[in-house]
């Protein structure tokens, strides 16, 4: 299991690559939520999401150990992050993407000089292919969440929250495979166990919620949600034990609540955030948090949205 020390080491390793992202706030949002809400704004991070933190930590460590080639299986934020950091370190990267990858995602990866390989439509097809290429090229396959270096890299957000927000009471984090939240848990709970950490999942992609209730990893069938960064079928083998050890609670939000939060942040705060990130605001806005009157950091995990999809996300906010 990773520890606070691993997160501190990650922070040193990636310090020259990543931004310390700002904390944004809206008094109106805080009033609606009944808690003081502070947005840790990773949508303003390099490559548009926090994924660069874990990817940089893992790729730099691999390069230091002699890696000369990396691969990943993701058309989304992880694929972009791996392509970006590999390019910085002059290491070729092949990113395996689905046949139906959107034009703008493919372009983002190419913009970072990543090689694109199209393969199938499911991650069950893409992951073996990315591993196969890594073996053939004597390179390293970079997983999206279930890896100690990835988890420690994502945890650097936790260290920044501790420094940027004095006396924070709680931190709200979206959950996909659990890399982000397991890193943040290790960083924060080993620094100050009194700070509450609450995970959020879409109610249509509640694999970690069910696993957490049952105290064992449970896999659910295909998930459908506009929060595409959270569309996993089960938590990771390495991430889940960290959740079992430290996590206070997991709450669920509906697709409609995610759309409301997305629209609120866009209209009132003038910020473009991903539906995956809007889940944390939705949890606060729709009274899912088990407390009131607290100082709460919500992790806004990314801001990469296909522009043609925005109209599908926007609703007249009910608040
Ligand atoms: C990957 C991702 C998540 C989920 O992170 P995990 O480490 O898989 O739990 C949340 N939001 C965004 C924007 C992401 O790209």
From TrEMBL:
GO molecular function: ATP binding; L-serine ammonia-lyase activity; magnesium ion binding; pyridoxal phosphate binding; serine racemase activity; threonine deaminase activity; threonine racemase activity
Taxonomic lineage from the root: Bacteria, Bacillati, Bacillota, Bacilli, Bacillales
Official protein name in the record: threonine ammonia-lyase
One matching Pfam family: PALP
Catalytic activity reported: L-threonine = 2-oxobutanoate + NH4(+)
GO biological process, one term: D-serine biosynthetic process
Source taxon at top rank: Bacteria
InterPro entries: Ser/Thr_deHydtase_PyrdxlP-BS (IPR000634), TrpB-like_PALP (IPR001926), TrpB-like_PALP_sf (IPR036052)
Keywords, sorted A to Z: Lyase, Magnesium, Pyridoxal phosphate
Matching CDD domains: Thr-dehyd
Function: Catalyzes the anaerobic formation of alpha-ketobutyrate and ammonia from threonine in a two-step reaction. The first step involved a dehydration of threonine and a production of enamine intermediates (aminocrotonate), which tautomerizes to its imine form (iminobutyrate). Both intermediates are unstable and short-lived. The second step is the nonenzymatic hydrolysis of the enamine/imine intermediates to form 2-ketobutyrate and free ammonia. In the low water environment of the cell, the second step is accelerated by RidA.
EC number: 4.3.1.19
Cofactor annotation: pyridoxal 5'-phosphate; Mn(2+); Ca(2+); Mg(2+)
Annotated family: Belongs to the serine/threonine dehydratase family.
Domain Tryptophan synthase beta chain-like PALP: 18-302
């Amino acid at each position: 299991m990773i520890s606070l020390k691993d997160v501190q080491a990650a922070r040193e390793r990636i310090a020259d690559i990543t931004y310390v992202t700002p904390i944004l706030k809206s008094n109106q949002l805080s009033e609606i939520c009944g808690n003081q809400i502070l947005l840790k704004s990773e949508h303003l991070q390099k490559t548009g999401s926090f994924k660069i933190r874990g990817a940089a930590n893992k790729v730099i460590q691999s390069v230091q150990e002699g890696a000369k080639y990396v691969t990943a299986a993701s058309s989304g934020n992880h694929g972009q992050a791996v392509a970006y950091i590999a390019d910085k370190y002059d290491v070729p990267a092949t990113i395996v993407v689905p046949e139906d990858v959107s034009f703008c995602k493919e372009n983002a990866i190419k913009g970072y000089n990543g090689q694109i390989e199209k393969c199938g439509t499911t991650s069950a097809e893409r992951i073996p292919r990315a591993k196969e290429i890594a073996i053939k090229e004597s390179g390293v396959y970079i997983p999206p969440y279930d890896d100690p270096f990835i988890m420690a890299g994502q945890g650097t957000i936790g260290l920044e929250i501790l420094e940027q927000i004095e006396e924070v009471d709680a931190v709200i984090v979206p959950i996909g495979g659990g890399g982000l939240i397991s890193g943040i848990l290790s960083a924060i709970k080993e620094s100050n166990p009194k700070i509450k950490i609450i995970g959020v999942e879409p109610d249509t992609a509640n694999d970690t919620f069910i696993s957490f209730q049952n105290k064992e990893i449970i896999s659910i069938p295909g998930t459908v949600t506009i929060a595409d960064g959270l569309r996993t079928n089960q938590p990771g083998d390495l991430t889940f034990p960290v959740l079992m050890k430290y996590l206070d609670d997991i709450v669920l939000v509906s697709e409609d609540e995610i759309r409301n939060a997305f629209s609120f942040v866009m209209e009132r705060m003038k910020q473009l955030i991903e539906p995956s990130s809007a889940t944390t605001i939705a949890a606060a806005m729709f009274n899912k948090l088990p407390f009131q009157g607290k100082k709460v950091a919500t992790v806004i995990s990314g801001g990469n949205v296909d522009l043609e999809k925005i109209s599908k996300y926007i609703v007249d906010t009910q608040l």
